[in-house]
Amino acid sequence: MTPILDIKNLCKSYGPVEILKDINVSIVPGDFLVLVGPSGCGKSTLLNCIAGLEPISGGDLFIGGRNMTNVSPKDRDIAMVFQSYALYPTMSVAKNITFGMKVRGVDQATQKAKLAEVSKQLQIEPLLNRRPGQLSGGQRQRVAMGRALVRDPKLFLFDEPLSNLDAKLRVEMRTEIKRLHHDLGASMVYVTHDQIEAMTLASKIVVMKGGVIQQIGTPAEIYNRPQNLFVADFMGSPAMNLIPAKAQKNGNGTKIKIDREAGGPLVLTDTNNPDLPEDVILGLRPEDIAEAGYRTGEHVQTANCLVDIVEPAGADTFVVSQLGGKEVTARLHAETKATPGQPLEFAFDLGKVSYFEPESGQRVS
Amino acid sequence: MTDYAAPSAYASRQRSRTGQIALRWLLYALLCLFALYYLMPLFVMVTTSLKSLEEIRTGSLVSLPRKVTFDAWATAWSGACTGIQCEGLRPYFLNSMMLAIPAVALSTLFGALNGYVIAQWRFKGANLIFSLMLFGCFIPFQVVLLPMARVLGMMGLAGTIPGLIFVHVIYGLGFTTLFFRNYYVSIPNELVKAAKVDGAGFFRIFWSIFLPLSLPIIVVTVIWQFTQIWNDFLFGVSFSQAGTQPVTVALNNIVNSTTGVKEYNVDMAAAIIAALPTLLVYIVAGKYFIRGLTAGSVKG
Ligand SMILES: Nc1ncnc2c1ncn2[C@@H]1O[C@H](COP(=O)(O)OP(=O)(O)OP(=O)(O)O)[C@@H](O)[C@H]1O
Ligand SMILES: [Mg+2]
Q1: Are A115 and A212 found together in one domain?
Q2: Is the CB of A14 under 6 A from ligand 1?
């Protein structure tokens, strides 16, 4: 299948400052690409480059197989929701939404029908005659969404379209977008800071840092096999535990030694990963550390650790203890008997473990 | 100690309150004085224009007219002599209208377009061009008289009203561009981006999105340009000929060309007539003028 969006070696600088460095991304029709990364890493800039609103300094950009590097935005067949909404201040909500259709010469009847459809979808029917200045942040955001949704473009670009909505509406809109994506089979590029949005919506996630792509993969790949310490730490909440450890070959397994507050080092035996460097960082998600007896499996190993803090969070209880000089969070069941200051037997699921090279931060297995 | 301090603090507070009130009254008095000073000439002009020549000769300058007569106004409008012709101000007033209205409209429109391009469609050298245009605001007009006369001659517009319009549009552009550029620069560039994605082009975006936003700054520009162009004397006297002179030049001619008895009442009436349109523009649009000058960014 020809990719709907194909970015090859894209670079972007503002004067001497390089914002995007050698970006390569490709998605097929129907893909939902989510861009995540810390603030200022260049996500909005990348969207602007895809839309043709910022000239790129190097590389090529194809949409639907056509080289769009020098094509103007209106001919790229895209719709975009801006981070700052960018609603036209002197037009009513209805005019804002239909402006694009009007410019493109869509007939009145279709305009009306489309407007009615999206305003229902986005729950903004009572607002249609207001000016943007008379709307709340969340309402403006929905109008901005509406402006994109009335179109039927090759590619949707969303820049944090739900960031200003309340929790309930956000979940509704998330489902709405997912449904939309499913129904239209539309291709989307979506920027978000919300981990759950990223995991639930994406068919592909791009993690960026400082204008460089750190990893591209499905949500499961990104979550389970992060390519480096940055991705491991950035994705997931609470973050993955990254514990300094010493590895030692031992028969057909590897002994993993981790410093512990009391009772000498904690020793685990990993039979999956025979070739580890001596110094490693062991990465284990909170949900892969359970209370002994609550987790079974081939690679589960148990050990005693001192409990520092217990944080009940409703469905789960988070328990923090000290390992390898780091705070390690475990996600236990709600009824756990863990008490601060007391030792508890934990179950470590080494089947889910990631190892990283401490110097380079790269994944070793 | 504190027992004594309290009443004395009270007294000093009291004293400073009286001081403040006195200061305020002083301020008001001063302001009234200034206002009087400014209004005095207008008062004299209006009263004089309503007196007969006889009364002017015998009465005092600041006294109210004993018998109000509009003869001087009628003469100023349609009978006063500007040299050999004695048609009053009327034809010249019309000249000024025909000159000022298109010149104001064109210079405002072009200023808006320039400002829009410079503020929202950043291109290489935009800042340089803007600086050069700003520089144009500060060129003394005396410098350009001769070259401009030559250019007008080459264009075949010498001594015509279109020629004067051309001159005023060109020399107004610096200011109008400055006004609009400063106004548009505070409007987020995302608006242009969103409209581009929506498929709108350069003029569409200007017409549908930026012009509707611009009312306050349009008012400011129109007032400014109208005042400048209507009141202009230098260009008017340099680039016009017998039939095409603007009202300011005619006024000068009326005042200077009377022989024999000086008809002060006619001169005053003519001066007021010549100044009336600018006054009117201020009164009608002045509210927006202040608002436009202080209007900041556009939210939403
Ligand atoms: N016009 C510009 N000129 C110079 N630098 C810019 C310009 N626009 C953006 N930048 C810089 O480019 C970098 C990336 O900005 P961008 O807006 O893409 O970040 P982002 O990833 O979208 O961040 P956020 O999550 O906060 O929205 C930032 O460091 C920013 O300062
Ligand atoms: Mg951004």
Answers
A1: yes
A2: yes
